[in-house]
Amino acid sequence: MRDRGSVPETEEIGVALSKKNQHPVPATTASDWNRHTQQDKELVKGLGLTSSTMLVIGSMIGSGIFIVSAEISRETNSPALLIGAWLVTGFLTIVGALSYGELAAMMPRAGGQYVYLRESLGPLWGFLYGWTLFLVIQTGTIAAVGVAFGKFLGIFVPSVSSTNWIVHILKVPPIQIGPMVLGNMDVGLNTQNLVAIVIVVLLSVVNIFGLKTGAMIQNVFTVAKASALFGLVLLGLFIGRNAQALAANFQGNFWHNAGLSAQHAVQVGVGGPTVMVGTLTILAVAQVGSLFSADAWNNVTFTAGEVKNPSRNLPLSLAMGTGIVIALYIACNFIYLSVLPLWGSAGGATILDRGIQFAAEDRVGTAVMLKMLGTGGGALMAIAIMISAFGCDNGLILSGARVYYAMAKDGLFFRSVAKLHPKYKTPAVSLMVQMVWTCILCLSGSYGQLLDYIIFAVLVFYILTIVGLFVLRFTRPDAERPYRAIGYPVLPAIYILVALFIDVVLLRYKPQYTWPGLMIVLVGIPVYFLWSRRSNAAME
Questions:
Q1: 392 half-sphere exposure, CB direction, 13 A CA radius
Q2: I need a labelling partner for 143 at 20 to 30 A (CA). Which of 31, 150, 299, 326 fits?
Q3: C-beta separation of 91 from 484 below 8 A
Q4: What is the pLDDT of residue 347?
């Protein structure tokens, strides 16, 4: 994954190396553990509690909160279950953050989750996470968020469009393989993805010039977009309440279709049969959108080597950041329900007729603002989403590069990626490698499909990391733990069970989202052994 810096001394590598063949193996002694989990001395400690919390918030809030509630409402067909889907996401996110706080305080190293998996389950699992992060999770998200910026910029500058081609290379037709549909995308450069590429290049270069520069941009844009989200909530409370929506969603209809015995229709895969499932199953299916919208809270752990007083600031920033965002997300969905009826028609002539379920292009946030403030409200929402996208991309770019840096130091990525900028001590090569791959994804048009595939894989790695928390409690009972996970072992165990249930449901009913992501992870296994063998040969 991400970048690397200068090649470290043996004692600073995150895995012990046997003197005989230099093959990476997990650290086993107390002295090894202490060496491998201490902070990175070569990095600048420039993130305080405020900046760390802003990184959590800024990485989480993108454009999803303004869009995915339309799909969730169509799946659940219930106001209560729309809120319920976000409550499940909120529970998983906050419990995950509280659990990661213990790992972050124990191992304040650049790379974060990659390091936790490496130290608890072994280097293969850390590599598979980093591999998937680089190939799909981080770079695909950066590309998609950048293109979203271009899409909303097009409202003000009509020449910015996905159909305004500068160079159109080819059209890849749709190819169906079992439940999966691959292809069906245009490859080339248009004005919309050009905007995305410009943003990715600009923010990647800016983040080379010192951690404080990137953190300053993050703080400014995070405050702006969190304020915009809070403003949406205030507007909905004081001027947006709509009698028709309130009657439709709350007066006797809030619990419609929400009983445990209720049946919900789900289409299996692409073009598969429609089957009836229970309420708990449909809530699991609905997590595709809400979990994606709340993801990336773990990105602050990637920068742990640059956080001041990490044993205090990392757990606090994770708890506060996720708590603030989840509260805003749930409040926003109550506002949606108070301004627009849940039920609508795809062919509805007005915003109210279309409701939340069939908001134009699923832009629920925009529909709500249009209802409250007219065309001016739609413009304000477009500006808010652009601010949100810009700040989100900055956080993802800043943090992601630290993972590839950590992998390169372990010999599991290009060695040059471990090089730091001689003056600013930032992972400059890692930032550039991440930038290049992200720009390729923008040109390929594949980022949208990649993002469809990642939630299953992301959840798998979250489960494995929290399993690692249990493993380390058993294998390293005497390790220093400045913070211990709140609710351990009950809350982390519930997280694992709920997340496993969601993944099993997605495997069964949404194979078009799950099997491709699983295959991307599995392909990383032979890559790991090839890379580690190559690394060992270079050391001999």
A1: 32
A2: 326
A3: no
A4: 84
Model pTM?
Answer: 0.90
- Identity of the residue numbered 425: K
Q: Determine how many CB atoms are found less than 10 A away from the CB of residue 455.
A: 24
- Name residue 236's amino acid: G
- Averaged in consecutive runs of 10 residues, what is the pLDDT profile of the chain (540 residues)? 31 31 46 64 87 95 90 94 97 97 93 95 96 92 90 92 90 72 79 95 95 91 93 92 93 90 87 89 92 93 93 96 97 97 89 92 91 91 92 95 94 92 94 96 77 82 97 94 95 97 91 83 93 70
DSSP string computed for 122-144: -HHHHHHHHHHIIIIIHHHHHHH
* Interior/surface letters 391-404, b for 16+ CB within 10 angstroms, e for the rest: bbbbbbbbbbbbbb
Q: Does residue 478 come out as left (phi exceeding 0), alpha (psi in the -120 to 50 range) or beta?
A: alpha
Report the distance separating Cα 501 and Cα 484, nearest Å: 26
For residue 297, what are the CA distances in angstroms to 59, 244, 316, 540?
6, 36, 13, 40
Name all domains of the chain by residue range, CATH numbers in brackets: 61-539 (1.20.1740.10)
User: Which residue, 399, 397, 408, 444, is CA-closest to 139?
Assistant: 397
Q: Which residues of 360-371 are buried (b: 16+ CB within 10 A; e: fewer)?
A: eebbbbbbbbbb
Say which residues have a Cβ less than 8 Å from residue 439's Cβ, sequence separation at least 6.
143, 197, 200, 201
pLDDT tens digits, one per residue of 371-399: 999 989 989 999 999 999 999 999 999 99
* Gap between the terminal Cα atoms of the chain: 24
Tokens of 119: 């130290």
Sequence-distant (6+) residues with CB within 8 A of 72 are 82, 85, 286, 289, 290
- Per-residue pLDDT tens digits for 142-166: 998 998 899 889 989 999 998 899 9
Stretch (H or E) spanning 165: strand 165-177
